[in-house]
Design goal:
Number of domains: 2
Number of strands: 30
Oligomer: single chain
Radius of gyration: 39 Å
Strand content: 25-35%
Shape: elongated
Amino acid sequence: MEKNLARAPRRVRRFLKNSRGNFAVMTALTLPFAIVLTAFAVDEGALYTERRHAQAITDIAANANIGRAEAVVAATLADNGLGSVLLRPAGDTTPPLPGRPVAEVVKGRYIPNSSESVASRFKPGVQPYNAVQVSLKKTGRLYFGSSVMAPPVIGTSAIASSTAEASFSVGSRLLRLDGGLLNALLGGLLGGNISLSVMDYEALAKADIGVLPFLDALATRIGITAGTYSDVLASDVRIGQIAAAMADVPGLDSTTRIALQTLGARSSANLLVSLRSLIDLGNVARLGIGQRPAGLDIAANVLSMLTASAAIANGDHQVAVDLGGTLPGLGSLKLNIAIGEPPQSSPWLAVGEEGTVVRTAQTRISLVATVSPLAGNLGGGIHLLSIRLPLHVEIAYAEARLNSIECPTGRPESIRVRVGTTPGIAELYIAEAYGSGFADFTRRLLFRPVAIADVSLKLLLISLDLIKVKGYAHARMGNGEPIALTFTRADIDAKAVKTARTSDYTASLTSSLIDDLKLSVEPLGLGIDLGWLLGTVTKAVSPALRGVTPAVDALLDNVLGLLGIKLGEADVRVTGATCGRSVLVQ
């Protein structure tokens, strides 16, 4: 090479050795490539920024009110500069166009289960909905590359979840307060000698307590100092501890507090209550003891919670109460009460989402009352010796199902909670039960005529000292379709009680039973037809029984009210509700 250069003319050699101007030449050669790369870099940066902006808008749109998700998502996207948005249904493949993005809105259920991958925690279409997935596709903008390539499609997706919850319970409140009767019934349920005044019961019936402060106090009493409410609810506690913990809740008046302390001290130490059968806190149970859920008040009536606890403790057990002659017109009165477990261990009070169910317990009441005859001598040698009213009440569980929680405007004051309520089917008999055990709820009892009256008969040479007149009557009430109850924010704040009544409710069931009572004379095996006695005996027995029906109806109302049950009715209270705050989860 050097030899060839040496042979070249001097000017040529000088030119080839001169390096001045090389940069300009290199620049001229590489500048087009640099300009192209810079254009692509600008477009890439712009697309990145555009995608981040689209993702931010998608995140905002996903936090939509679930009930109005489609409309809110469309408005949110349009209001944030994305133009007219096409909401396409699932499966539609319509592509986006410049100035017309496409979006999909899918409702479903998000379950924050750590054992599942993040991508599989959202279940599209699974109800009850608690999450919205928004997917957006839009045409990106190219500033320099549009002449050599088609604009790319930018895709973003976001899932936001919000948990709408309500606190509600099913049962009833006592409308009439009879201190002696309530003492006898509570004493039988609690296994102790109870002696509270009507004023004490009125205070208990009017008082409400916060369920979480109650559980805080109970946790201290049973030695749980750390953990979650789920740890507390996993415990079995004594009735006395429940009453004492309620007395520890701040805000109660002195009458209520002393009454609770008295009940706690006098209840049996052997009665244990499974707290999970009493209260289901749902997601709230994950909170640490002492923490509170935002925007959700959980309250319960003091007397209702106490009697529900006693009923649960006595599940599948029988309580016998001798009330003596406590009602006018009655010589004696004996009650047997059997309380069964609610199906599926349904709690008395629950905090939950749509689909949550609370139920009362199945209940059987056997009432045997001795009625004072209005007249003993019926004439014609017929003497009415005694009258009995053997009444049996069978009540299936009542059910309240949380159907929906909605905030139509997205604001808490617009909240509406709908509860489908089915009163328990009630059957009443004037009859004698036989078959399975009284407290065995796995089988139905069978019924047959029962002795209503004892009669003596003296005719000439015939003297029959004990003729039994038997009777049988049956009445049934109940409807299988749930009755919708709607609670507004005002109802919830007032903790209003709403009642679902069966369509064929009869005001005085006992009276209707007596109207349908069919009497017969027990055969004596003497070959003597005594059927002619029935007309005379019926004229005496029916008025006597009808005369005590108001008192018996009032007694049943009190007994069932104490147990959280009513004939043909179900009371529901919603004490707190929230539509929840949407939180991005993916």
